[in-house]
Amino acid sequence: GSYVTLRDLIEWTSKDAVRFFLLSRKPDTEYTFDVDLAVAQNNDNPVYYVQYAHARIQSVLRAWQEAGGAGVPALKDVDLSALEGPQAQALMLLLAKYPEMLSAAAAGNAPHDVTFYLRDLASSYHSYYDAERILVDDEAVKLARLALVAATAQVLHNGLAVLGVSAPERM
User: Fold this and answer.
1) For residue range 75-94, what is the model confidence (pLDDT) as tens digits?
2) N or C, fewer C-beta in 10 Å, the chain?
3) Rounded Cα distance, 51 and 119, in Å
4) How far apart (Å, rounded) are the C-alpha atoms in residues 89 and 93?
């Protein structure tokens, strides 16, 4: 057999990919690192998929601010009752699970639970993004949707930070 050093993997892929991929497995399981998947810039690559969700949200928030929006702090007390669709509901429910998931992952020394959660959250966000236009004319709906995606970006950022993986603003 042959071997590859961790330094080689990082050089071939990235620090973020190596961390995310290695943390995605339970420590007692065998793992084969798929370099081709780790460098792929598509939805099959889990770290790319999660980071892309964060960058996509940042793009929406930038567009809103460039159009005269007040910025993320102004979304703190927004009425979320305008969020009625099934994708919005699913995204809110998943966001609400973050504190409990993080506590359980920390207590169980299970960083792979964080990677699974982040992939699920990114998937839920992408489904929401595909189903709902965020920057709509109705101000109440727009602000509610912006508050939801800003909260999603914050949780993605925090979860990636726990893993030591970057949350890029642009991709």
Assistant:
1) 999 999 999 999 999 999 99
2) N
3) 10
4) 6
Using CB atoms within 10 A of its CB, is residue 162 exposed (0-12), middle (13-18) or buried (19+)?
middle
Q: Which two tokens stand for residue 90?
A: 């699913």
Is residue 112 a contact partner of residue 132, using CB atoms and an 8 Å limit? no
Q: Which two tokens stand for residue 113?
A: 């639970």
Report the distance separating Cα 18 and Cα 46, nearest Å. 11
What pTM was estimated for this model as a whole? 0.92
Instruction: Using CA atoms of 160, 117, 97, 64 in order, give the dihedral in degrees to the nearest 10.
Output: 60
CB 48 within 8 A of CB 123: no
How far, in Å, CA of 142 to CA of 44, rounded? 30
